[in-house]
Amino acid sequence: MSTQSDTVVRKGLSPRKRAQRSRLIQYAVLVAVALFALFSADWGQIGSVFFKPEFIKSTFQDGVLQALVKTLEYTAGAFVIGLAGGTVLALMRLSSVGPYRWLATAYIEFFRGLPAIVVFIAFSLLPLAFEGMTIPWDPYGVVWLALGIVAAAYMAEVIRAGIQAVPKGQIEAARSLGMPPGLALRKIVLPQAFRIVLPPLTNDLILLVKDSSLVFMIGVAADGYELTGFGRDLANTYSNLTPIVVCGFCYLIITLPLGILVRRLEARAEKSR
Amino acid sequence: MALVEIKNLHKSFGSNHVLRGIDFTVEQGEVVCVIGPSGSGKSTLLRCVNLLEVPQQGEVIVRGEEITDPDCHLDAARAGIGMVFQQFNLFPHLSVLANCTVAQTTVLRRKASEAEQVARANLDRVGLNDKVHAFPAQLSGGQQQRVAIARALSMDPALMLFDEPTSALDPELVGDVLTVMRKLALEGMTMLVVTHEMAFAREVADRVVFMDGGVIVEQGPPAEVIGNPQEERTQLFLRRVLDPTHVQDL
Ligand SMILES: Nc1ncnc2c1ncn2[C@@H]1O[C@H](COP(=O)(O)OP(=O)(O)O)[C@@H](O)[C@H]1O
Ligand SMILES: [Mg+2]
Questions:
Q1: Does the record bear ATP-binding in its keywords (chain B) (predicted)?
Q2: Does residue B64 belong to any structural domain of this protein?
Q3: Residues near ion ligand 2 (Cβ under 5 Å)
Q4: Structural domain of residue A128, as residue ranges?
Q5: pLDDT band at A272 (very low <50, low <70, confident <90, very high)
Q6: 3-state helix vs strand vs coil in chain B, percent to 5
Q7: How far apart, in whole angstroms, are the C-alpha atoms of residue B194 and residue B163?
């Protein structure tokens, strides 16, 4: 950094004055951009494309809330599969048996390295490739599986870090009381590990809510539409973006509180450290 | 028969030969204090008694059972050996009561009501019956260590191992823990205690073991080992421990 030349050039101004002037300039730019946007944009046009009141109303009438529920159901099921699978993978990665470690590492690297959409396309083609193959609980089974196997790869790394963050003394205390390894893991290590990974795991949940939008790649029937599929379909029908905007807000209703929760949990963890 | 019998114990970490042939015994009801400079292998020796460290050579026999034998039911043997750590190692996600019951119900398969009764009795013994529902983080270091003692006692151990139980405590909290240990000793508990508390060792121990460089240099009644050490290394160590200006050297 060229701090030296800066101090030479701006010899005349104190740091506080300089900060003040910089802030002033920033506000000036902001006001200029806002004014430009205000006068140059066609607000009537924008309003009728993105926020047309009658389309907002019909989006609700056509069942945006059912789509919201579908998004939640898809996410919840996938989260459960991801959590269970991620825990198993994390334990495999920490196993003293080499092949378990290699298998888990391969799985994790594979699914973290792929775009999720590729996995979804693969799942959408499964019934074609294997004729007569069905995954139970249509459409939930296939959605949960597709979302869950990717989520498991991400969660495995988070959970592994959480398990390793539990102090070694905890395991020693448990073992010295006569607990066998599995029992010590269940009663002592995992409960503490999950407390540690609650914030990053909630982050994964947020990602999962958004990734559930990829479900439309599988090609579920209309009554299985989640928010994105539903919004896209309706926007096409109306040739108007309002349904997509409504669906976007629905995502935010889920993700924003979760985001706040993550920050709360992180602050709490920080405090108790 | 001795409660603990250790024969020709050797333990290395990589090329670091930490225990170099330890032979000693602890009799039923005996209180043995292990003293010695930092790094001399005291903790390692203690941890070999319940096989938290696995020795490369030698035998550890507790209550007639050779726990260094690969066929030994290690978890069952450990359940009968209480261990108290320097850093307490309470389970932070469990209440004080649950800390004292979790191993009872799972390892000893006691009924929840019985386990709770035992836990409460032992918390009473360490003077913490009013903290039953607290969590470890809400307790002082001295209280945490007393809970750790109650947790170990709740398994009805035949032997208690203490690894510098007061070393992590603020000086004003040391007394409470030592009081509990003194009481245990008077009740006849067999205890193996690694400690730097010379006054405690002198008063409570039946026998003091001085370790240095992975071997037992000298052992005997406290009046002899601490009061009138024969070996030069013991004399040097005690001079440094007992002279307050040298306490830092430890
Ligand atoms: N888990 C371990 N891994 C490697 N070295 C260890 C381990 N535990 C202890 N040591 C080494 O063994 C030696 C003795 O340690 P320890 O038994 O803790 O001594 P003390 O308790 O008398 O201070 C030290 O040199 C220490 O570094
Ligand atoms: Mg030590």
A1: yes
A2: no
A3: B 43
A4: 55-272
A5: low
A6: 40, 25, 35
A7: 5
Could you tell me the CATH number of the domain that includes residue B202?
3.40.50.300
The reply to whether omega before B229 is within 30° of 0 (cis) is no
Query: Which sign does the torsion angle of CA B215, B221, B222, B227 carry?
Result: negative
Is A42 part of any domain?
Answer: no
| pLDDT band with cut points at 50, 70 and 90 for residue B38 | very high
Q: How many Cβ contacts (< 8 angstroms) between chains A and B? A: 62
Structure tokens at B41: 């292998």
pLDDT grade, residue A24 (50/70/90)? very high
DSSP B67: T
Q: Which domain holds residue B128?
A: 30-41+71-242
| B78 to A176: CB separation less than 8 angstroms, yes or no | yes
B52/A175 Cβ within 8 A: yes
- Count of CB atoms situated within 10 Å of the CB of A205: 22
CA–centroid distance, residue B8 to ligand 2 (Å): 20
Taking CB atoms and an 8 Å limit, are B79 and A169 in contact across chains? no
Indicate if ligand 1 lies below 6 Å from the C-beta of B44: yes
For B106, the closest of A170, A172, A187 (CB atoms) is: A187
Rounded to the nearest whole angstrom, what is the distance from the C-alpha of residue B250 to the centroid of ligand 1? 15
Asked if the structure places residue B54 within a domain, the reply is no
The verdict on residue B205 lying in a domain is: yes
Q: What is the pLDDT of residue B245?
A: 63
Query: Using CB atoms, which residue from B80, B93, B103 is nearest to A192?
Result: B93
| Closest ligand by atom to B209 CA | 1
Helix-then-strand count for chain B, H and E: 9, 10
Q: Is A236 within the bounds of a domain?
A: yes
As for the ipTM of the complex, it is: 0.93
Query: How far is the C-alpha of A172 from the C-alpha of A67, rounded, in Å?
Result: 49
SS3 annotation, B142-175: HHHHHHHHHHHHCCCCCEEEEECCCCCCCHHHHH
A74 membership: H or E segment, kind and range: helix A64-93
- As for how many domains chain A has, the answer is 1
- Total domains in chain B come to 1
How many angstroms separate the alpha carbon of residue B44 from the centre of ligand 1?
6
CATH number reported for the structural domain that contains residue A133 in this entry: 1.10.3720.10
| Residues in B 189-248 with any Cβ partner in A closer than 8 A | none
Report B:40-59 residues touching A (Cβ under 8 A). 50, 52
The order of strands in the sheet holding B81-84 is: B81-84, B159-163, B191-194, B31-35, B207-212, B215-220
Please check whether residue A38 lies inside any domain of the structure. no
Ligand 1 within 6 A of CB of B143: no
Q: Any chain A CB within 8 A of the CB of B115?
A: no
CB nearest A169 (choices: B77, B89, B137): B89
Closest-approach residue (CA) in chain A for B79: A178
